[in-house]
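Next up, a specimen:

>
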Amino acid sequence: MFKSLIIVFLLAANLSAEIVCLKSTLRPNGRIKMKRKVIASGSCGSRFVQVVDTSTLTGPQGPAGTNGTNGADGAIAVYGDGSQGAISLANGESVLQNGQYTNFTVQSGASVSARSGTVIRATGTCSIEGTVVVSTFAGGGSTSTTTGTTTRNVEVPAHPGQSISIASPGEWESSIGTGFGGYGGYGFGTGIAYDEARNILKPGTLGGGGGAGYISVNSASIGGSGGGTITLLCKEGITVSGTINVSGENMASLTASGSGGGGGGIVILATPENITISGVIIATGGTGADAGFNITNGVLAGGGGGGGGGLVHALYGGTFTNTGTAFVTGGTGGASDNSSIGIPVVGGGGGGGSYGNGGRGGQCADGTQSAGSNGSNGALITTNSDPTSLFL
């Protein structure tokens, strides 16, 4: 009986302690009362018996464990998982947004479309042999003035895209006078902002800013939309022998007289290997609308400002070879027209900004409509360093 009780108490002991002690007391009814205590060290004390010193209990050495295999480098995720395999796009097809390929190719002679903000990831190579046309995104602005018992403006501002400020509409003059042109959007890459342009690595859907429309009576002219964006993240290299087009919207037609062109878009090319450009990348600002009398809206308008030129940023860990052309020029301002006569007169809207500034709209007077100014140029910039960690 006593041995059984000792075993029970031992099994219940806290084996993380050093010493287990037991004390037995005989009750008047003849039963034995057992008491246990556990101490870290020292003597068990009066009438307690040390049962076991757990520090002396050492089992046999267990077998050595095996090392697990190292997990995949998280940076690999930048280039996708290749789950959609290799793809080669033919004429008329669309680029799948946020595709994850082994190799990505646009076939020679093919023209394919892509939505603004598209990101292409490839565990292998990316090869643009045909043409990729990216949709515009940031909207142009418009302002209309209604007259009656009251005069009120209804304005839809142009969206700035990635630029620093929005393009503004030209001034409206209801009688003989001068309507001054609106200002173009201020670019994110001009002046001291050059280094900020290098930080635009994940532009999303927003590239160039929208151009401005004009103020008029009971009518509105909408400015050009800003160019979109596309990003190629390709682990084993990028080749552009065809064309990538992210230009801002052109507004050269007199059906939109007085409207500013959209700012050029953004192209990001990133790989730890080599980039080779022998084709064309177009990130130009949109053309401003010509000055003149707009029969549709019944207004006399100055020329719209040209959109600012966009951004092409190449990041590479290997070599960069460029025998092609990157068009990042600012859009041309709308032409003047001094032959038209009429009222009301409106100044041309400013062009949308991007890397470069949007051009200012031309002023307008009865019989004298000035040209809009050109947008300033964008840029092709390069970063020679493995860009992988920048996109985590």
